[in-house]
Structures are given as C-alpha cells and as structure tokens.
C-alpha cells in the first residue's frame, strides 16, 4: 500500500483536531476569562533511505535521504495572555491586571483557579463564583460580607471593606495565586483550572505582590479569542484538510492504475 495514503490520513486526522481547537476558541469568544488554545503540528519519524556520508579524500560528503511518514499532534497550548477589560460598574465583578489567578475552593475541599471574576454573594454573605464555589482570601479562608453592612468596596490591593454603622471595616483580602508554568495548568471546565505536575505549585499571594497583579473592581476580563485570527486559522485548517483528502484520492487512483496493469 502506498505510504502517501497513510501520510494523508495522519494529515486529515490532525487537521480535524486543529479545526476542533478553533471551534472551541470561537465558541468561547464571549466567555469571561477564557484563554484560547493553539494547535501545533509535529512531523512523524522519517524512513531512512540512505544515511549521510562524510567527505573523503577524493569525494565530497552526501546528505541523508529520508521520506517523512506524516504528521502528528505536537501540542495544544493554552495561551495565557492578558485579556481586554470590560467595564461593568458592578462591585463583585473583578479582573486581575497581571499574572495571578483567583483562588477557588472546590466542593471536595481542594483548590482550583480562575481568571473569570464574575462573583456574587450567597445567603450567608460569602463571596462565591457563579457555581457557588467559595472565593478564597490570601490565607485560604472564605470572605464574608456581613448582612448588616450598608455598603462595601474592593480595592486594587484586594482588600474588601464593608461599612458597618457608618464605620469602615476590613472583611478580608481577595487571594491570588501564580504558577511557574501557567501553561501547564489543566482546564477543568466551568472557567476553572487545576494544578498539574508541570504547572508547578501554587504561589499564594496578596494582590499587587510578587507579580500577581492588581485587582480591578467593576471590570471583567474578556476572552482572548480574536475572531479575525480564528477565521484565518480556520481557512488554513480547511485548506490543509482538503489537500490531505486530495493526496488520499490521488494515491487511490495510482493504486487503481497499478491494478489495471495486468
């Protein structure tokens, strides 16, 4: 069987995966705090036809002769670039201007991390995500705004200040975490990321310290997806997929010609 057919199949499968990544990016163009993915191709091992030779006394050297065997998935990167800020004027809409992630307590007691800061208060006054997960402070505890507070605000340093009987009181400080390799974080769904062996341990910080970034209250971080860029990538992926179907068709026609030789 012609090797070109199998090379075409590998190209077909991986271009389909590239289109899957683009489809996910476009679907999340309006998801707050979403970080777009990027598919990277990698060539497969090559068949050695002839090895390289070194120059001799009376003859120069020759380069290796190899035939590539197709393509494979190199990686699917998550690009953790800073997203644009969308003003909302809502007190519990928060964005991070920097590299930090909000610390979130999972229902099982563990921690996850997010860049989506569209928080709210539950009936106990605790600050929670839209799924009801607790937002943690710098010390790993929950942050509660007293139900008797007449007003509250959140500063750029993450300090939550509530007004009780006309007097300002500190209710806690929004906690942030940074990672040595944020691209190593695992997407868990629900705008959450989880720590992995390659992300490094979470470095828990207060906003404005250690490169974590400052808190922007009344703002939300928008998705990093650029539709014009995705459309160009989609056209590139579609043409690549079409070209790979063509090599399979051509290889099949060659096989048909060989069968008709008899």
From TrEMBL:
- Supply the alphabetized keyword list: Bacterial flagellum, Cell projection, Cilium, Flagellum
Spell out the GO cellular component terms annotated for this protein, sorted alphabetically and separated by semicolons. bacterial-type flagellum basal body; bacterial-type flagellum hook; cytosol
For whether the record's keyword set contains Nucleotide-binding, the answer is no
Q: Where located?
A: Bacterial flagellum basal body
Matches recorded under SUPFAM superfamilies:
Flagellar hook protein flgE
Q: Which residues form the Flagellar hook protein FlgE/F/G-like D1 domain?
A: 95-161
Where do the Flagellar basal body rod protein N-terminal domain residues begin and end?
5-35
UniProt superkingdom: Bacteria
* Coiled-coil regions listed: none
Domain Flagellar basal-body/hook protein C-terminal span(s) in chain numbering: 217-261
Per the UniProt record, one Pfam family is Flg_bb_rod
Q: Which GO terms describe its biological process?
A: bacterial-type flagellum-dependent swarming motility
User: Looking at the keywords, is Translocase present?
Assistant: no
Functional description taken from the UniProt entry: A flexible structure which links the flagellar filament to the drive apparatus in the basal body.
PANTHER family in the record: FLAGELLAR HOOK PROTEIN FLGE, FLAGELLAR PROTEIN
Family from the record: Belongs to the flagella basal body rod proteins family.
- Put simply, this protein is called Flagellar hook protein FlgE
Which organism does this sequence originate in? Answer: Salicibibacter halophilus
